[in-house]
Amino acid sequence: MNLSSEIFQADCKRWEGSKPCEIQRQVNRPNCLGCDQYEPAPECNKPATTECSDRDLIVTAGKIGIVEMGGLGSILRTTAVTKAIKSINPHAQINWFTHQRGVELLGYVPEVDPINIKPSNSKVELYAKKQDLIINFEMSELAKQVILKAIRVYGFNINRQGNFFTNNLNFKYLQRLQVDNEFRSENRLTFQQVLLTCVGLGHMPSQYSVIVPEEKMLYSRQLLSELLSNSEPSNIVGLNIGTSENGRVRRWPAQYYAELAIKLSQEYPNLGIIVLYGPDDYKILNEVRAFLGNFKRPNLALLPSNLEIGDFLGLVSNLDIMVTSNSFAFHAAKSQSIPVVTFDNPLPPQEMEIQPGDTQITPNLACGPCYNKCTQDFTGYCMSTINVNQVFNAVSRVLSLV
Fold first, then answer.
1. What 3-state DSSP class applies to 135?
2. φ and ψ at 301, to 5 degrees?
3. CA dist., res. 209 & res. 84, Å (int)
4. pTM for this structure?
5. Other C-beta atoms within 10 Å of 141: how many?
6. Selection from 43-47, 286-290, 345-349 with the highest mean pLDDT
7. Which of 305, 313, 349, 315 has the alpha carbon at shortest distance from 332?
8. Do the beta carbons of residue 186 and residue 30 sit within 8 Å?
9. Domain check: are 307 and 266 in the same one?
């Protein structure tokens, strides 16, 4: 991780922080080195907060703030950081600044107290001021209301020009992963390991931190019993058909999911099959329904809509196998130690938290990884090259072990 501190020009008026600026995009430049169009941005009236790259503060801080407000999968993955922090500083109070859906998810993470950053209010600013240290993984406008009120920031801070920057070499590595796709393709760390390394805890194990309450477990077992009321499954497999809308390129085709569901149902009459989906997945859900047509079996069911996050986690914890792309469902399964059959090509496969017992199917195409920016005439072509028999055989192998 030997990165030049000047590889990025964070005081430039064109600086965008987490993605290439317009000049970089025009000439396909992955960083600011060699750029002759640098223009300093005017300084804001608000002074920069104090950046601290001293890991010892994480060990001694009484109150630590975490800023991460991406997708639910990203938030769940980042719980490895709070779990590691608690192991070396068990008395720390950890406040996590995020959005409403993140607050709902973090209600099942024992180490943290979540704070809803929207709508902006004085409570958010008050909590930000009270933190001894804020660890910021975000470079977004929403994050600024927290960072501008912070006393000490570890990670992505805000300079006098109002732009995000970092002096921490480990966070520079994370930033470069987000900006430079060629650099990212050479990374060999899982993303959890990257995040742990950012905070100086890369030597610690990558472990999710989610506890599903017993009442959620009970409700989920009852729900599964109702959905599969006419069968007594020996094992249950979840087919997660979607992703976030931003990650739609990573979706396996709806037709393939339907064909897999039918094949599993026919070949394994004692297997329960549950089709899972999220709030962004109604289009693909309708496609799966259309491809299923009139096919009905007592061991095949679709998840009810509008399931609360805790109920979804409880249901996932009662599965024996999860078939999914790189999505929140993948991280939910790994947080509950559920074996997964997964496939990915738009994102580097080595970034996923694959464990013994998991099966990862990656297309061997020259165009991947494309980082969700498909270059094919047929968007998501790589996912269509993974055929139903490949996934069926992978599920069969896992079934023989559970």
1. strand
2. -145, 155
3. 10
4. 0.92
5. 7
6. 286-290
7. 313
8. no
9. yes
Asked if 206 and 353 touch (Cβ cutoff 8 Å), the reply is yes
Alpha helices (runs of H) in 148-207, residue ranges in sequence order: 169-179, 181-185, 191-198
Work out the mean pLDDT of the chain and round it to a whole number: 90
Same domain, 188 and 43: yes
Tokens (6 digits) for 233: 């499954």
Binned at pLDDT 50, 70 and 90, residue 1 comes out as very low
Cβ–Cβ under 8 Å, residues 156 and 166: yes
- Expressed as residue numbers, the domain containing 260 is 214-399
- Given a contact cutoff of 8 angstroms between Cβ atoms, the answer to whether 340 and 214 are in contact is no
Asked if residue 327 belongs to a domain, the reply is: yes
CATH number of the domain enclosing 71: 3.40.50
Rounded distance, CA 164 to CA 138, Å? 9
pLDDT (tens digit, 9 = 90+) per residue, 146-168? 999 998 999 999 998 989 988 88
Q: Considering 143, 169, 198, which residue would you say is the last residue of a domain?
A: 198
Domain final residue pick, 154, 173, 198:
198
In a domain, 209, yes or no: no
Q: Is the peptide bond before 356 cis (omega within 30 degrees of 0)?
A: no
Number of domains comprising the chain: 2
Q: Are 177 and 139 in contact (CB under 8 A)?
A: no
Exposure on the CB side of residue 224, measured as CA atoms within 13 A: 29
Burial class (CB in 10 A: 0-12, 13-18, 19+), 63: middle
Residue 157: left (phi > 0), alpha (psi -120 to 50), or beta? Answer: beta
